[in-house]
Amino acid sequence: MQTSRIPFDPASSNIILISYPPGGFGNFMFHLLTEFTDQTAKPNNNQFGFSSAGNSHDTKKYTVTYFHNPIKYHPYIDRDVDTTDKKILVLVDNAWYDNDYSKLSTVFPNSKIVRMCSEPGIYNIVAAMIATKTTGAPIDLSYRKNYAGIGKFAPIAHEQVVNVSIRDFMLDPFETFYQLTQELGLTVINTEQLHTLVAKWRTAHKPYFIDLYKEFQKEHLL
Question: pTM score > 0.90 for this model?
Answer without folding.
Answer: yes
